[in-house]
Amino acid sequence: MSTNDLLLSPFTLPNGTELKNRILMAPMTTCTGFYDGTVTRELVEYYRARAGSIGTVIVECCFVDDRGLAFPGAIGIDNDAKIDGLAKIAAAVKSQGSKAVLQIYHGGRMSEPKLIGGQQPVAPSALAAPRDGAATPVALTAGEVEDMITKFGEGVRRAIEAGFDGVEIHGANTYLIQQFFSPNSNQRDDKWGGSRENRARFPLAVLDITHEMAKKYADSSFIIGYRFSPEELEEPGIRFADTLYLLEQLAARGLDYLHFSLGYSLRPSIVDTTDPTPLIDKYVAMRSDTLAKIPVMGVGGIVNKSDAELALEHGYDMVAIGKACIAYPDWTDRIAADHKLELFIDSTQREALTIPEPLWRFSLVDAMIRDMSMSSKKFKAGVFREKVQDPAHELAVNVSLDTDRIADIALDAGADLDVEFTTSFDIIRSRILDANSPHFDAVTGATEQSEAVKKAVSKAIAKSCKAQLLEEGGSLNAPQSYDVVVVGSGGAGLAAAIQACDEGAKVLIVEKMSTIGGNTIKASVGMNAAETRYQRLKGIEDSKDLFYQETLKGGQFKNNTVLLKEFIEHAPRAVEWLADHHIELSDITITGGMSVDRTHRPADRSAVGGFLISGLVKNLNKRNIDVMLDTSVTEIRYSNGAVQGVQLLNDDNDVLTINAKSVIVATGGFSANREMVVKYRPELDGFVTTNHKGATGSGIAILQNIGAGTVDMGEIQIHPTVEQTTSYLISEAIRGGGAILVSQAGKRFFNEMETRDKVSANIIALPEKFAYVVFDEQVRLNNKAADEYIAKGFVISGSSPRDLAAKLEMNSDTFLATLESYNVAVDKQDDAEFGRKTALRHPINQGPFYAIRIAPGVHHTMGGVTINTDTCVLDAQQQVLGGAFAAGEVVGGIHGGNRIGGNAVADIIIFGILAGQNAAKFAMR
Ligand code: ADP
Question: Which residues form the FMN-binding domain (predicted)?
């Protein structure tokens, strides 16, 4: 049989189960589970789309214990409640005719505290993983090791109940099972550690219990696989001979396959780098007859049929396909038809390929995405040298451009580089090249460097476009013309630009900062709307009228009621507009001043701002909308009662003129302009602000220059819960999730769910002028933001209330009494003492207990320019300024004397869409 026939013809495993071919989908992290590790609908569809012609789908690893998550969005099999969701995946895969195998694991010391509620990870020994910032784990006691084996067994039982055809024990990638076998991570002196024989005990025990469970609950067709990493680099560490020893032991107990975990299936040793022999060749030569009976599967770098055939020629019996299965859900059909495949994904194809949003943003996939949006841009080919400046470095980067794409970027060889920068530069470089755009999601942990490189690449592109224009006989001084200019790239500006473009207008966005996103990117809690589809799905009863009344009350009845009615009316449509643009806010929570859950947020309960901006930018890129960064609008050109265009100033101090019939000002508020804040509210001198540096109110001044009226300028909101050393906002979602506020005296002092103005005033009235947001494990589990605060080091935690009180230097008896009386109020759903009516979610009684020290900070400026319901800017006499539109925080009146949490995001999207619609119509009438 040729290897081609071999690959596609049936293959029988040692237990007699027949696979229809030798191709398996490799288990790959998708980060698409719910916050609690249950299965999402997207995940089911992702696997369904990839099943069919492929023989077997190995579903991504499931943690067997809730301390075992090794990455965000991981799915779990740690309790029976998870079975239903997993059963949906198994059924989806099997319905297409493929076998469904589930991988099970525990991250051990590779779990980060922020993923497991700030707890310390567990491991064979209390030794941190050899990587920066790794937490030191707690060593499992002998009893806990036995419990862990039981947990693996329970995982197997659940996999069987969920209908899987088999399990793959994840003994690789330095997770817990490998940690037991490794002399590096296992330095125990009981029967689980020490000699190689002892270290092999745990992996063998996991296999034993897997067999036991399979015997008890499944039939003999149940597949049992084992994945292993053949070597470790560390000294001491697992060597290939050790691996062979372990595999022989596993094989003797019976296995249906072994899965060689390598980045590249034909990789040689990483320890002995002088030996180029692929490890699979050595394995085939060295294995015993018993081991030779166990089929072995290769993975890594298999994209085309020839790669798979080569792997089989080297001795693999089966191949697992990773990234190629993400890019080509029908990979097996394609290679059967002899297609030649390239490993990239067209940026417009996410839905068509059924790739869940979190996976789309995962670096593995991100690196395969090619942005198709820049293909119409024309560059002058050449190398453009630009300065890259982050707080720690000043370097040069050479940006090579082809006529239609970014060909390469390289740091200047002579520059003063440090290792940290070069490492993140490599990731940044590949993201920019794959996206073919400087607008990519920043690299985690290297945000400032990402922004600096983005800026340099944007500048190089601008220079090259200029050069191309000149070459084509154009003139730089000749003003460019657009239908609509949008000033500001926060949520309001982006929504407006997208809508205007969809109405057929030619749109330009001008942003004075180096990055897109404005203050919106910092938004945490969500978007309010009443009578939405998502509320209906969750059975939440709400009405637009109630939303209106509560917003009006929260705004101290100072709101512009005409605008407010427009806001309330359009809110559910705006939620749908976002969903239509693949920005789904399907989870719902509550904020202060509201009586109903109506704050819409991402399904994984993460902060809304980053999610929103990332989604809007993808829409922007798809539409090819021009963006000028580092460029301020200094003036709106206005004459004869109509907008003529804008004047710009870029950071090379060039003054540029743009012609346009409509201008949408979406420049945000002025919380970061201390002079302006103090001018209107002297008592706020010295307050920190939660806002980004660009929130200076320049749009108000620009519009005032052409005669715009303003309203409510003195209405400035201070947010009650701001971490003062970093000015970081502690989201209202934490209180909405069940947290309370406690003073240094250990007492609650006010209804935490009151509006922001009142809560702030009561904190300032405390003698110490600060307070603590206090919550427990239950609140943390339901709010992703809490883990972020833990990771940022804001959170003080204690195993018991007394322990926490001691750490806060608080009278512990008073604190205990406070918790006790709050818990009684929760039980009764009646907070007689402070009148809290909402978010009495659960008693605060499950350790660990947490506290964050906070005080108020300047957060939102409710005042701004006057507009009508068509978002037209009005002058002091309420007359329309022709062609001038405004949306978002730059506008005054909607929120009255106090903005409700969740209403800013609603405001920017609702009025952003309206402004886009109206400005486009006006320009093209
Ligand atoms: P909103 O929430 O109303 O959308 P944001 O604060 O999120 O407002 O965004 C406003 C954006 O406008 C910010 O990115 C800010 O840097 C930008 N901006 C402010 N003034 C100007 C200006 N004069 N020219 C260009 N951009 C501006």
Answer: 392-464
